[in-house]
Amino acid sequence: MARKQHIAIFTTASLPWMTGTAVNPLFRAAYLAKDCGWEVTLVIPWLSLKDQSLVYPSKITFTSPVEHEAYIRLWLKEKAEVVSDFKITFYPAKFSKEKRSILPVGDITETIPDQVADIAVLEEPEHLTWYHHGRRWKTKFRRVIGIVHTNYLEYVKREKNGQIHSFLLKYINNWVIQIYCHKVVRLSAATQDLPRSIICNVHGVNPKFLEIGKIRHGLILGGQKAFSKGAYFIGKMIWSKGYKELLQLLSEHQHELWDIQMDLYGNGEDSSEIQNSFSKLALHVRIHPGRDHVDSLFHDYKVFINPSTTDVVCTTTAEALAMGKIVICANHPSNEFFMQFPNCHTYNTTDEFVKLTLKALAEEPVPLTDDLRRALSWEAATERFVEAAELNEVIQEKALPSAKPFMSMTADDWKQSAEEASAYLHNTISGIEAARCAFGAIPATLQPDEQLCKELGLGLPETKMFFSR
C-alpha cells in the first residue's frame, strides 16, 4: 500500500508562550492528523534555558525536549480536550531581543528525513526564511505552503526610520516567498500582497471557547443574566499590540466614558510604561497580569474591546466571539472575517467607538447560529486550509533538474532558471556572517552552538545532525 502523504508544520514559537504562532499551528497539526488522517509532524523551536527565561511566562522552563513535548501534549489535552496522533520535533533556535521573536539556527529543513519530505507548512514563511542558509525548501519538499500570520510591515513602520525599513522589508519578503513557497495563504488582507497568495482565514478557536459560548447563550435564552462584568482587553503588553490605540481612544473621551470600568490583562516588555500611562487617566482602568483567555476569570465579561490594527486575524477576538461576547474593534482588513458575526461591532472614528462601547455595555449579545459557531471551529478552519492550500491535489514526485538546449527553453523554463538563480543568490548572501548580521540575524547562527547541540542531543555542529523523534 502507498504510504500516506506527510505534512511537516514549522512554527516560529511554541507553548508556553501564549502567542498565535504557538497555539494555532498546534491546533492545525492536531486537527489535520485527527480529522483528515494525514501523517503530521509539528516542528517547533527549542530554546536554551537562558532564552526560555526571556520568553516563557511564569518562570516555566524545560531541561529537555522530552519535558517540553510532555507539557505541550498535556496542555492540548487539559485546556482543549483534544487528543491527536501527531509527532513533535524540535529545531535549534535563539531568541532575538531586538525583534522580540524566535529565530531558527542552522538549516532546519534537515529536521525532516528526505523519505517523508512531502509537504511543508511554514507558519510565518518570511520569518522562517529571512536568514535561511541550507537546502532550498522547494528542493527538499514536493510542496511548500506558507501561512502569513504577522503584519511585519506595520510593526516596522512604528520603529525608528520605519518607512525606509518597511520599504526594504516588503521587497525582501516578496523575494524569499517567491523562491521558497509554492503557495501562500494570507489570513487577511491586512498583510502585504505576496506571490502565489490567496486570502483565507484558516484559524479556528479552542473548542473550550465554543462550549463557554453555548452555556452563556443558554442563560440569555433562559432569561437569566449571563454577564456580570463590563469591558476588558487581553493581549501581549507591548505598545504595538493595541495598547497605544486604546490609550488614545480612552484619553480623548474620558468625559463620555467616565462611568465605565475596564480591565486589561497581559505581560510584556512594555508593561511598566503601559501601566504608568493608563494610571494617569481619570477612568476606572485596572491592569492585571496575563492569563489564559479560557480561564473562568473571563467568562463573566460581556464586552471585549480590541482596537489593534497590527494584527492579521486576532485570535483573542475570535475567542471572545466564540464565548458569546460583544466585540468592539476597528473597521480594518484584519477584522473582515469577524464582520459576519452580529456581535462584532466595528468603528471608523473615535466618536463611533464611544457610541458602540456604551451601547454594547447596555445590551445583551445575540446568540450565535450553528453555522456561525461552526465557522469559528477548528474543524471548519481545517477544511478551509485544505482547500486553500490545495492539499488534496496529487503531488508529483520530485524531479531531478535536467539541462535543456538553449533554443528549446520555454518561458516557464526561463522563469524557473531565474528563480533558481535568485535562490542561489539568497543562499550565498545568507551564508556570509557579516551580511547576515547587517540584515538583523543573530550572530553565529549558521550552525547550532555546543549548548544547543548538547540540549538537543546533536553531534558536533559541523555534522549538521538534528534532533527528531
TrEMBL record:
InterPro entries: DGDG1/2, Glyco_trans_1. GO terms for biological process: galactolipid biosynthetic process. GO terms for cellular component: chloroplast outer membrane. Residues 232-335 form the Glycosyl transferase family domain. It catalyses: a 1,2-diacyl-3-O-(beta-D-galactosyl)-sn-glycerol + UDP-alpha-D-galactose = a 1,2-diacyl-3-O-[alpha-D-galactosyl-(1->6)-beta-D-galactosyl]-sn-glycerol + UDP + H(+). One of its GO terms (molecular function) is digalactosyldiacylglycerol synthase activity. It is found in: Plastid, Chloroplast outer membrane. Its EC number is 2.4.1.241. It is an enzyme of class 2 (transferase). Keywords: Chloroplast, Glycosyltransferase, Membrane, Plastid, Plastid outer membrane, Signal, Transferase. PANTHER family: DIGALACTOSYLDIACYLGLYCEROL SYNTHASE 2, CHLOROPLASTIC (PTHR46132:SF1). Belongs to the glycosyltransferase group 1 family. Glycosyltransferase 4 subfamily. This is Digalactosyldiacylglycerol synthase 2, chloroplastic. It comes from Canna indica.
